[in-house]
Amino acid sequence: LFAHYSMDTIDTLLSNLENRTRSLLKGKSLQGVFMANNVAIVERMIRSSELAPLLANTAQPKLDGAKKNAKNSYMDAWSEIFKLLQDVTNTAKAPRPPSTGAAIDSAALLKSMSNKDKDVIKDKFKGFNLSFDDLIAKHKAFKMEGEVKKQLGMEVQKFVEPLYARFWERYHEIDKGKGKYVRYDKAQLGAIVNAL
Question: Using CA atoms, how far apart are residues 140 and 149, in angstroms rounded to an integer?
Answer without folding.
Answer: 9
